[in-house]
Amino acid sequence: MSIRNVLIVDDSKTELMYLSDMLKKAGFAVTTAENAEDAQRKLDQGKPDLILMDVVMPGQNGFQLTRAISRDPRFTDVPIIMCTSKNQETDRVWGMRQGARDYITKPVDQAELMGKIKALG
Length: 121
Prior knowledge:
Layout: E1 5-9, H1 13-25, E2 29-33, H2 36-45, E3 50-53, H3 62-70, E4 80-84, H4 89-97, E5 102-105, H5 110-120
């Protein structure tokens, strides 16, 4: 599967800008969502090739949203990379149990993220 379209879900405008710029410069098409509700709307509009998911967000958190998306038959083949400041091993394990394919901690290292995306594609 070739990854071209990425949905970034993060409540931080700074993180959205940082990740969007990084991915756009690398040739990806990027859509952003600031919370779970916004992400669901974006998913209804089109299926991304990859989702970068923050964990700590108001309302439904990234773990809950990852679980919901990964169990939705329309999106079971869309990989989710948790992209969060939660850096404990228990957080990583929990994220993977919710359906994430990988886990990266903030601040995001560009080379590490690109390597993870390449490994998925």
